[in-house]
Structures are given as structure tokens and as C-alpha cells.
Design brief:
11 helices, Dockerin type 1, five-stranded mixed β-sheet, disordered N terminus, alpha+beta, binds 2-acetamido-2-deoxy-beta-D-glucopyranose, five-stranded antiparallel β-sheet, 427 residues
Amino acid sequence: MYFFASLVLSVVLHAVSSAALPAVAAAPPAQYTANPSIGGGGTQYKDSAHFRVYGVDSTTADSTLKMLEAAHNCFVETLGWRTPSLTYKSNADGPYYKMNVYKVEASTMPGAAAQTWTDANAGLAYLKVVGQYMTTPGVIVHEFGHAMHYSEKNWIDQLRTGAWWETIANFIADTYIATSTCASAKASQSLSTTPGDSLIDVKKVIGDSHQVLVDGTSGSGNYYQAWPFLAYITNNPDNYSGLGKEVLLNMIRKYKLNSNETPLHSLERLLSGVTIQKVVGRYWAHMAYVDIGHAKAQAVFASQQKSLNYANLDSNGNGKYTIKTARQPRYMGANIIPLKATGTSVSVAVTASGAYTATLAVKASSGSVRYVDVVNGNAAVTLASGETVTLVVVNTPSALALYDPFSIPADVNKGLEYSVQITGATV
Ligand SMILES: *[C@@H]1O[C@H](CO)[C@@H](O)[C@H](O)[C@H]1NC(C)=O
């Protein structure tokens, strides 16, 4: 696994006291300056315009550098992330340093493929990568994502954003690998532009969808797997105002400085005309069929759908069902409940112990999905030939929680109790 590791967080989390300086726009140089003092340097290295790779042969270095240059072109030069070549400690337009990448032995980081390290004095990140992963985009671009995020500064020292760093790094890696977003950047490095397999882990993100939306609990958390939420808010299939291509950068850049709020608080402030509860509710409704504007992720879902754990409800007879205690949706988590229609009219009546957002997702044989809100506990749909229907129930409290995903308090981890009367379908 690629990990960011507590190691880096402990470096990241120390106090930062620099005041923001006004941004100065100046064109960066074509070649950035080598800075061997970041991470210790070495004698064997190879350079590209924005990176220096240490400790591998020339052919391997070329592969690593091409990938990093493609990622830099895509995320920094095209999508506007701040380059990790600038220190986070100042807004000055330089100096621009080549980011260092070091090959290390596997024995130096048990259980990890790579780690992002930081030189906290310099305010610059560098990567340590186990040799066999030096040319693996799921590792290299993931760590590059951490380095950009570090350069963005605002979430450094903000404990409640901590677990989301992994969610973001995997989103960056998946975007690079499995979508067309970076196609022209890859072409500029003569890399294949055919999207690769998505990193989506549907067994976790759907099979354990009842967990807190971003859960950093050691061993059972979902913070590496929760990134489809970021794909949804970026691709914005519901056209909600405030979401879209720039939403993730806006969540970081418009974060209330030094507030230690969660990323959802930042997202909530970006929205207009739609609530955060509705956005999270609709995200999970879209996950019924992984209809999030991501063909490669949807292909993984299609191949694994039959084997996923959908055992959420217990039957009480006569079409009435109750959520299993262990599967009650936690804070901003969901139950995705495929229904087996027995006729063309399907209706649900939900009774719950707390605030929730529920939706019927109806998929046509063409693949398109329509969404019908459950309003005041009720929704009904008439199915056309070939349509299938899934009930999605999300625990969406009326106020956002201030919580540390690495140490989730009991009230945030408390499940939503509910029952549902289903007519025209079984579970
Ligand atoms: C969102 O906007 C796109 C582009 O205008 C449109 O094709 C799509 O139907 C819209 N979706 C919704 C749910 O309104």
C-alpha cells in the first residue's frame, strides 16, 4: 500500500505561524533549480525540468520523470494546483526548486511503498519510494498529490483535515491513471493516453458504505477508498452550484484559516442553492450504480456488483424491514439497498430515528440513472421495462460535526436507526 503515514503527519502537524503575503504573479523559469539539501541529496541522479530523481538507473529515472512531468503539467500547469517546487512558507514567486525523489530500500519503510516527507524548515516536500514502485503511477502520483497539497498550505496543522490527505492523494492518482483528465499532459511526455484501471475499491466504499464518509480508523477506516466522493463533487453530474472542476482546490484555498474545521465545513460554505446534506445524499444515490461521471470506476463496479455486501436490512414480514444494527449508517454514511421489483409500481415509506436523506435510484437498460427523492418519508416510482431500482438511505444530520476522522467520537459513529415499508418490491 502507498501510505502517507503518521510519520509525515507528525511533521505536518507542528505549528505554522507565517502570515499570508500578497500573491505575486510571475512566470516560473523553464528549468527549476536543483536543491540537494532537501532530503539529503546523493551522487546518482537524473533531472527533468521540475524534478530530480536519486538512486536509480537512467532508464528507470526517465520513466519516473516522465510520469512526474505529466502529473505536473496536468495538475499544476493545467488545473492550477500550487507546485510543490515552491515553499509553502511564502507566497513569493520563487525560488522554484526541483522536487526530489529518492529511491529507498523496502526495509526502511515496512508496509509502505512510498512516503511523502517534508523539510519543515524549508517548507518543501520530497518523496521516498521503494525501488520496485519507482515507475508505478498509483504510488508516485499519489505521493505527488500529497506534495501539492502540502504546498497549498491551508490544511497543514489542521488535525480534522488529516485523514482527507489520503483521500485526496488517491483521488489525484486515480484521476491521473483512469480518466482522460491528464491525456494531453501524458501525450506531451509520449506516454499512453488510454485510461488505465480505476483505483476504486467498491468492496470497501460500497460494501462498507455505512461507515463515516471519511473514516481514518486504523485497520477498518476508509480514508484511502473514500475518494469517489471527490470524483462526484468534481464531475458534478447534478450541476449543483459550488461543485465542479475547481471544488477541491476551493475547499483547500477557501478553508477558514486555522479553524481546524473539517473539509465538509469548507465544502458547505462553497455551496449555493443546495445543502451539504443534499450533496452527500445525492453522492451516495449516485453510488448505487457508480454513476459519477467516471467510466473506468463504473466498469469495476459492473464487474464486482454481484459479489458486494448489500445485506443491510432484516425482514419483519409484510414488506417491512429494519436496518441491521451493525449496518446502521454513521455520520454521512449510507445504505445502498438494491430492490427486486415484483411489479411496475414501487414505493417506500421510511421511518427513522434521526435526520436522513433518502433517494430511489432508477437505472434504465440504457445505463442512464434517474433519481427520485424520498420526501417526508415517502417516494414512489413507476418502472419502465428494463429499469431496476435501488433505495439509498444516508445519515445526514442537520449540522456538520467537528470530528477527527483518526479518532471518531461515539456520537459521530452512532448509527441511524430506521425501518422501511416497501410496496411492489422485496429486498
Ligand atoms: C447538467 O448539465 C449538463 C450540461 O449542461 C446536462 O447535460 C445535464 O443533463 C445536466 N444534469 C442535470 C441533472 O441537470
